Amino acid sequence: MQERHDAPLAPLTTFRLGGPAARLITATTDAEVIAAVREADDTGTPLLLIGGGSNLVIGDKGFPGTALVVATKGFTLDGTRLELAAGEVWTDAVARTVDAGLAGIECLAGIPGSAGATPIQNVGAYGQEVSSTITEVVAYDRTTHRTVTLPNADCAFSYRHSRFKSDPDRYVVLRVRYDLEDANGLSGPIKYAETARALGVEPGDRVPLSAARETVLKLRAGKGMVLDPEDHDTWSAGSFFTNPILTYTDFEAFRARVKEHLGLDAEPPAYPAGEGHTKTSAAWLIDKAGFTKGYGTGPARISTKHTLALTNRGEATTEDLLALAREVVAGVHETFGITLVNEPVTVGVSL
Asked: Residue 123 and residue 129: Cα distance in Å, rounded?
């Protein structure tokens, strides 16, 4: 277990932002992770868990406690059942399952971060969510001081949310178990319209696994959503805001605001989101409120490739980023009456 003091955190995040940690520990086994967590809890030391750093906004003052990098390794495949250690690189794990001919997470290719973060955020994209394949999550319970195994039904998965996200100080994810599908080298049914168009198929069709993965990677790269050190559009946390989910009543009020601002023929994006609810597009809201691709003149700007990504152009501070985020939130609310919610976890700061 490696330990450093007054250690920079910015290089450990995809935003490349944030001040130092008073203490930085890198754990490479489950036992080391648990020992570091127990020590912090026993001494009352603030604890920050870091995986791939792709969903973190850390304040410029840094973190006054112990930052714990979970760097555990473990990829075990038994038939269609997959177990990943929390520190496994997610994109690599997806590639290996595709190579093994197993479907279920192929459309989640290119998402930065570690496997341990996938159940916390219920990671999803291009018509797939990890909650549809996760069978169990093995975690250290900081309340009971023991390792527990939570079945899917106990994880309280919903859109970009879970039991782990709603109670962030209780569970430390150690391992995630998935059950994938052997479809004779084919993908799961293609659910996302953009992916189907790019593949030249109809929604619901299956395609070769490699074709699905490669197409998603190209789509993500075109939006600056695949990490590239030379491309500042990827110095981000991906989608900075979640897509709003509205009651039917709230959606109709929003729809009226859209027509008022954009004309009687204008219709906002609308997708079913469970009984009595409709989901709309945060990217559409941001764009139509006047925050187009490349918006901004400072060191933090909206991506030139995707309106949903806020980016560090190389010299930004966390406060620069938050100022831009607050401007976008205020503008969307003033125009459409909807308050956007940030997707990344904030540390020592807030919108």
From this structure: 6
Largest CA distance in the chain: 62
- How far apart (Å, rounded) are the C-alpha atoms in residues 77 and 166? 30
Q: Does residue 220 carry a catalytic annotation?
A: no
239 is catalytic: yes
- Rounded CA gap, 84 and 214, in Å? 22
pLDDT band at 1 (very low <50, low <70, confident <90, very high): confident
Helix, strand or coil, per DSSP, at residue 131: helix
Query: How crowded is residue 350: how many other Cβ atoms within 10 Å of its Cβ?
Result: 9
d(CA 147, CA 93) in angstroms, rounded, equals 24
Q: Which two tokens stand for residue 320?
A: 């620069």
> In which element (H, E) is residue 151 found?
strand 146-151
Among residues 239, 255, 301, 303, the one annotated as catalytic is 239
Q: Which of 88, 129, 136, 343 is catalytic?
A: 343
8 A C-beta contact, residue 239 and residue 18? no
3-class SS of residue 292? coil
Q: Token pair of 30, please?
A: 């489950």
Closest CA relative to residue 321, chosen from 1, 42, 57: 57
Over residues 82-106, the pLDDT tens digits come to 999 999 999 999 999 999 999 999 9
Task: Give the strand pairing for 134-141 and 146-151.
Answer: antiparallel
Global pTM value: 0.91
How far apart, in whole angstroms, are the C-alpha atoms of residue 151 and residue 63? Answer: 33
Question: Of the listed 23, 142, 160, 213, which one is catalytic?
Answer: 160
Quick one: which of 48, 65, 70, 53 has its CA closest to 16?
A: 53
Helix residue ranges per DSSP H, the chain: 30-43, 90-99, 118-121, 163-166, 193-199, 209-222, 248-262, 282-288, 318-336
